[in-house]
Amino acid sequence: MVGTTSRNTEVEGVEGGVGLTALLVAAARAIETHRHDALARDVFAEHFVRAAPACAEWPVHPGTVEGGDANPLWGRFARYFGLRTRVLDDFLLRSAHTGGVRQVVLLGAGLDARAFRLDWPPGCVVHEIDREGVLAFKHKVLDGLSATPKATRVPVAVDLRADWVTALAAAGFDPAAPSVWLAEGLLFYLPPAAETYLIDTVHRLSAQGSALAFEVKLEKDLLVYRDSPLYTSTAQQIGIDLLSLFAREPRPDSAGDLVAKGWSTSVHTPFEFTHRHGRGPLPEENDALAGNRWVFADKPRR
Ligand SMILES: C[S@@+](CC[C@H](N)C(=O)[O-])C[C@H]1O[C@@H](n2cnc3c(N)ncnc32)[C@H](O)[C@@H]1O
Questions:
Q1: Name one GO biological process term (predicted).
Q2: Which CATH class is domain 81-225+249-298?
């Protein structure tokens, strides 16, 4: 195992522990999909939510959100996930269509349906890494919908705190070909040593011309926002205590580590994209999103 501390080993599937956060994001995407000004559309998202008894009461439509946009969880936080989905959709599609990359790796893929909903160029392979229980649930729902992927989809059931490289290689990943990697809503659940290993491994397996996007939280002490509306309403409305799932040890400087390895990086607040798209969350007092950053990294062609 990479790293010794872990808060989320108990539950393997989507019904609890960190797996349940995949359903939280799916519900947010379902709500975003039904907005008249949707930033991203994911027609699969509400099917995941409706298939899980743990979320029987969760909304999947903005019209049924109590308090509407003022609801800190299903209003503002859901919109955050909608914006994040859009920005990272654009990143992946740019890498594939403009950068010519044909190999995609979704780390902590959860219920990400990008293999099914994005228009990939011919020849694309999408590797989806998550734990076995999460992927088993995903497959059950997608099979029930007779969903057809728009790329070659390769699920890789493995724990990212373990030796996931062997599993990815066995699944056919080719380190000689450029790749695009995504760690969306993942790193803060991993022990710091597992994050360092992940970044080192992405570097090692990335041919020149590869790209990586990931999300980090910059706060030294995550508890500083424990009373924020976002964390308290997530706990009160759906019983997910995000702070208890996050790994709270000091984080590595992954963006800095990539620069030291020769990558070029750019670091953005989500709010920059809110302004760019004309909609999305804005900063507020006592804001659990204040330290969130989206990092985009490129391994230069020489
Ligand atoms: C907040 S969800 C995000 C899912 C997806 N990236 C998205 O944005 O829709 C976090 C995901 O990370 C996965 N995850 C957390 N720790 C993991 C680990 N140690 N190994 C593999 N997956 C893990 C969870 O199972 C969950 O699917």
A1: methylation
A2: alpha beta
